Inverse folding.
């Protein structure tokens, strides 16, 4: 009975062993290629990279794994892999072997005939035998079965399609496979040159981001298809590690293009912040590579690229019906996302390798995406031009209507004047003179819009402004100077100071609110709301400081200094009183601006974080400290020092140049 059981166990063992028997690859037709794949390759993973050829040969067959797919896939790993396959050439032609992964780090081949080593070579590090992508090389010509051992390592995704074919078939095969590649690279080059030309003419950042994205995407595909071997020869392997880094850079340019093309700073602030995070993450992946962690860089790129793609796709869906250019952007990115996902999932060993589908998915997706992006850019320019023309036509129409109304009023007024006698004319002239005086006096006290409303209705409505910038300027040295000069000279000097502040404030469109003793208060963004008030107030403050410094130097120090405090936020503005009118503003914004002034330093522009964030793109500043604001809590404070050099007309940094004003117009 024991012998029977033992016999059954032995039979089962051998049945399992022989069920894993490796098939021999037989080449019988010179016009066909054979895939080194399913049931034809035995392999083992060498995690520690210490398995030698002799050790691999001695491993029992039942301890090896056999390929289940047409092509061998290992995913993302740092391990080395040993492969074993057998080849029998029944043709009279030399057989070539092609490892269709140009991003491998090493590929060592050992060929045995009747258990005798007859050939070995380092495939990656040698001079290519043929000047073709993926570096095909010859196997020894033999009528006997050859046993091949192949050791592979890679720090990028491990996908290893291996084919056997004759030299003639290899050349024909490579020729036909290269035609789509050449068409793709030609299309990419045309897109780059065309859009670079348009970008230079329009000087649009969207075009430059698009061109940068197209260049890096084309280079990524160029590396992925193995064409560097044609240019660099035996040194082509040195660029293998840079594949994932180049892909990360491509992802960064795509994010930048999306931000600028879709106006995310205005259209979707959340989308802008999320994509900014994606750019930072891809930057981290690049830094990880530079630190030498190549495999970790590949993993991070895959994860971060997925994040960026999901964010961009979500943004395009959100803006699909809100912004016309987003429609083409959505379809372009969707098609690319679907087809590129096939390649990425294949590289990650999540789905099997489907040959021609994977080879050209990236080509098709990239070509469609780049074409639609280019069309979207052109449509965006046409849309902008059309909107501009419509706005100009509307303005012209309004001007014509106003001219007609004015002409009618002039005719009516003239007729009325002609119908009156000389005495009435004199009376009207006197009344008109007095009215002009009162209007002028009223305009010195109130904004024109408020004054007009007050005259027409006898009252004004208090208005809420969701964003204004308040400036407080307090004269330091007032009391000290009062002891040195007469009261008349003191008041004259104070009047000179406030008059100059009025002049500078008016120049930059600020509304002077009031003066309180030796304190001056002005505000930007009212009574007409605008988007430039923070810049207007900062320019006013810098010019005030510049003038004060100049006067102090001219008068040998016998001139006071000033503290400036600024904050940006909401406020309520209107007229208080019924007999003595005063235009004023109220709210926490005013209180916090006043707090910035009282805690500021002489000769410096002290601002809150809200104001600093609003203008930091164009002005230089430094973090100061957190201050305690009454009824508000701790507030971060900054010093604005000057305009950034690229936006400054001179070295002092207080006078903007043409580049600043050009961008200022588009705020």
């Amino acid at each position: 009975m024991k012998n029977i059981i033992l016999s059954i166990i032995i039979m089962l063992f051998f049945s399992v062993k022989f069920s894993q028997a490796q098939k021999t690859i037989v080449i019988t037709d010179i016009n066909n290629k054979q895939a080194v794949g399913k049931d034809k390759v035995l392999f083992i993973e060498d995690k520690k990279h210490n398995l030698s050829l002799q050790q691999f040969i001695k491993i029992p067959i039942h301890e090896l794994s056999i390929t289940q797919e047409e092509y061998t896939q290992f995913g993302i790993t740092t391990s080395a892999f040993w492969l074993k396959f057998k080849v029998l050439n029944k043709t009279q032609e030399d057989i070539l072997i092609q490892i269709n992964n140009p991003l491998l780090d090493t590929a060592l081949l050992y060929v045995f005939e009747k258990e005798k080593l007859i050939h070995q070579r380092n495939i990656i590090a040698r001079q290519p035998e043929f000047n073709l992508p993926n570096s095909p090389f010859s196997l020894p010509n033999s009528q006997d079965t050859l046993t091949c051992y192949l050791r592979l390592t890679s720090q990028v995704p491990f996908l290893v399609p291996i084919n056997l074919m004759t030299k003639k078939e290899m050349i024909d095969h490579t020729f036909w496979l290269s035609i789509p590649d050449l068409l793709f690279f030609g299309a990419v080059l045309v897109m780059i040159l065309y859009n670079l030309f348009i970008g230079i003419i329009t000087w649009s950042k969207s075009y430059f981001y698009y061109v940068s994205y197209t260049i890096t995407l084309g280079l990524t595909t160029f590396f992925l298809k193995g064409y560097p071997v044609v240019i660099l020869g035996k040194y082509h392997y040195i660029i293998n590690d840079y594949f994932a880094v180049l892909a990360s850079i491509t992802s960064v340019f795509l994010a930048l293009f999306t931000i600028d093309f879709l106006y995310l700073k205005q259209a979707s602030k959340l989308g802008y912040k999320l994509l900014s995070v994606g750019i930072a993450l891809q930057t981290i992946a690049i830094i990880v590579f530079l630190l030498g962690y190549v495999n970790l860089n590949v993993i991070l790129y895959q994860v971060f690229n997925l994040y960026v793609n999901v964010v961009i796709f979500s943004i395009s869906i959100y803006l699909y019906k809100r912004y016309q250019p987003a429609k083409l952007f959505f379809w372009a990115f969707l098609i690319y996302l679907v087809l590129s996902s096939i390649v990425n999932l294949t590289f990650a060993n999540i789905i099997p390798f489907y040959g021609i589908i994977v080879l050209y998915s990236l080509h098709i997706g990239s070509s469609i995406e780049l074409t639609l992006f280019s069309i979207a850019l052109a449509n965006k320019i046409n849309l902008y031009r059309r909107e501009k023309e419509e706005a100009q036509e509307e303005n012209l129409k309004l001007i014509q209507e106003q001219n007609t109304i004015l002409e009618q009023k002039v005719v009516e007024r003239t007729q009325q004047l002609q119908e009156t006698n000389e005495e009435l004319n004199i009376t009207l002239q006197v009344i008109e003179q007095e009215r002009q005086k009162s209007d002028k006096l009223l305009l010195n006290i109130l904004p024109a819009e408020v004054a007009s409303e007050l005259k027409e209705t006898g009252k004004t409505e208090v208005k809420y402004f969701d964003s204004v910038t308040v400036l407080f300027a307090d004269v330091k040295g007032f009391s000290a100077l009062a002891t040195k000069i007469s009261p008349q000279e003191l008041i004259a000097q104070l009047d000179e100071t406030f008059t100059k502040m009025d002049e500078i404030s008016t120049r930059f469109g600020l509304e002077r609110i009031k003066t309180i003793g030796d304190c001056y208060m002005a505000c930007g963004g009212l009574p007409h709301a605008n988007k430039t008030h923070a810049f207007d107030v900062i320019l006013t403050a810098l010019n005030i400081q510049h003038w004060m410094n100049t006067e102090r130097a001219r008068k040998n120090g016998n001139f006071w200094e000033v503290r400036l405090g600024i904050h940006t936020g909401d406020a309520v503005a209107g007229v208080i009183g019924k007999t003595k009118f005063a235009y004023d503003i109220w709210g926490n914004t005013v209180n916090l601006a006043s707090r910035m002034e009282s805690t500021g330093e002489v000769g410096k522009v002290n601002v809150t974080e809200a104001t600093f964030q609003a203008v930091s793109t164009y002005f230089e500043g430094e973090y100061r400290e957190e201050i305690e604001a009454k009824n508000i809590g701790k507030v971060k404070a900054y010093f604005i020092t000057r305009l950034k050099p690229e936006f400054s007309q001179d070295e002092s940094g207080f006078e903007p140049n043409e580049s600043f004003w050009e961008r200022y117009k588009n705020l």
